[in-house]
Specification:
Structural class: alpha+beta
Number of strands: 5
Shape: globular
Order of helices and strands: HHHHEEEEHEH
Strand order of the largest sheet: 4-3-5
Largest sheet: 3 strands, mixed
Radius of gyration: 17 Å
Number of helices: 6
Strand content: 5-15%
Length: 161
């Protein structure tokens, strides 16, 4: 993503200390939910946190092995499914990629700002998340998952264009 972007961007991944803190919090969240943070789940979450941006599943598969050996696709896809189900990661459908949740400690509606130039993504709180939930309840629905995606240009790409 963003290969057509002709200007520099800062690294968006978390520091080693921040990653360790986030992984520890994710493990505690699993325990609270009666789930297990298996080694594959932990590794995939670690890769998402390191990237700090949306990553396609096949890139996660390639980066998975510390010794340069790619993981089997089902291993990564099962881990992504778990992380998405538990709210620790989000799938951004319009770009077929995944990103670590920036909230991480609770289930919530997610909204993403996606730069069409460099591919940067930023999770923001949807302005009408509670209103949507109330409207759904009035109609007799229970929303289990909400992801809003907005495409445009990030501040760096806007200035550099």
């Amino acid at each position: 993503m963003g290969s057509h972007c002709g200007h520099d961007h800062h690294d968006t991944g978390l520091s080693t200390v921040e990653i360790a803190r986030a992984l520890s919090a994710a493990e505690a969240r699993c325990v609270d939910q009666g789930e297990r943070m298996t080694a594959p789940r932990r590794r995939v979450l670690e890769l998402l946190l390191q990237a700090g941006e949306a990553v396609k599943a096949y890139d996660l598969i390639a980066r998975y092995g510390a010794d340069g050996v790619a993981a089997k696709p089902p291993t990564v896809y099962r881990a992504l499914e778990f992380l998405e189900k538990t709210g620790m990661a989000h799938r951004i459908a319009s770009i077929s990629a995944y990103v670590a949740c920036s909230v991480g400690d609770r289930a919530h509606a997610a909204a993403f700002l996606i730069c069409d130039c460099c591919g940067a993504t930023e999770e923001v709180t949807p302005p009408e998340g509670e209103a949507l939930t109330r409207a759904a309840e009035t109609a007799g629905y229970v929303i289990e998952h909400t992801t809003i995606e907005a495409h445009g240009r990030c501040p760096v790409c806007r200035v550099s264009a």
